[in-house]
Amino acid sequence: MRCSLTSFLSVSSLLLLSGCLDVPHPFRDPGKDGRSLAGNPPPSRLDVPVPDEKALGAGGSALWANDIVEALLQQSVPAIKQPVRPGDWWLKLHTERRGDLIVPLYTVMTPKGTVRATQEGPGIPVASWNALNSDGMREASGYGAGQVVNVLNGIQAEQMEEDPHSLKHRGARIWFRGVTGAPGDGNTALSQAFVVSFHEMKDTIQTSQQDSDFAVAAVVKLTNGSAGSRNNPQQNIEINWRVTDKAGSEVGIATQLHDIPAHSLDGMWGDIAGAAAEEAAGAVEEMITRYTIRDVKPLPDTKGAPAAAAKNGGDPKAARK
Q1: PROSITE patterns from the entry (predicted)?
Q2: From start to end of the chain, where are the E strands?
């Protein structure tokens, strides 16, 4: 075999993870059992009423609400700038003066009007806050949205903790749909190596769709590359490992890219299949873990507590990148 294992192993440095790795899902439906066990799960939207911030005035207050909604939407949180509607969870925007600083506060409120948790942004000098321009407000809102997501993820993690069937209490069942498009014995070799790579992992591979939580399919694509040095032609190999949830929505794609001597994989893949599949299995595991937030800690139990006691209720380690 003309393509050496060491040459292909460098694919690990080129492993690209795309899709939903960094997208939180704080309002994901936990399913019928999860809903009944959670007691009072968040609905499909988060109301954000315009605050009454006298220093900002009506225009500045509306700008703050607009910017925090936009920042939350960018993180897949279905926030809406509107007055609080009955039955909705909502976000209270307010501030606290501490010496010469104004501290923006973001309080997640339950439909019953009790504080679930409060997060705070960095303090801003009073004069700067009173004269905050659109760029400064957008920056403050971006940080605040990240803090709110911490809280919402903690709420979802709490629901998962209470649900004995959730992925906090078991490994995911992955329907592996196989590999297509590879030359030589690549389809078979990559498939077998991928299944073997999951033997020591939390999640399990199965060959049927029944009761599966996710599906994985890999597609290999070869294209002709440059002529290469000394007239040694090259090929570009691209392997895309696509992960979808049970509804068929994309979780993410792990892409492996490498240049190889032309036609060097037209026969048996051997150890190269094992190296590529092991790398892909780790990426798939990571995508599923982040997508399900199963490693996020539940929010501390501060339901109904006053805002001062509930500050920083979210787990900062759960912050999204």
Answers
A1: PROKAR_LIPOPROTEIN
A2: 16-19, 46-47, 79-80, 89-98, 101-109, 115-120, 124-125, 173-180, 204-206, 214-224, 234-245, 250-261
Place of tokens 């309002």: 27
Domain count, the chain: 2
Q: How many residues are listed for the chain in this entry? A: 321
Q: How far is CA 267 from CA 2, 87, 182, 187, 272, in A?
A: 10, 62, 10, 11, 12
Dihedral sign for Cα 207, 190, 15, 283, please.
Answer: positive
pLDDT single digits (tens) 185-215: 999 999 999 999 998 788 999 989 999 999 9
User: Is 258 within 8 Å of 276 (Cβ atoms)?
Assistant: no
Q: What one-letter code names the amino acid at 65?
A: A
Pairing of strands 101-109, 115-120: antiparallel
Q: Residue 138's domain is classified under what CATH number?
A: 3.40.50
Global pTM exceeds 0.70: no
Mean per-residue pLDDT of the chain: 78
Determine the pLDDT at residue 229: 56
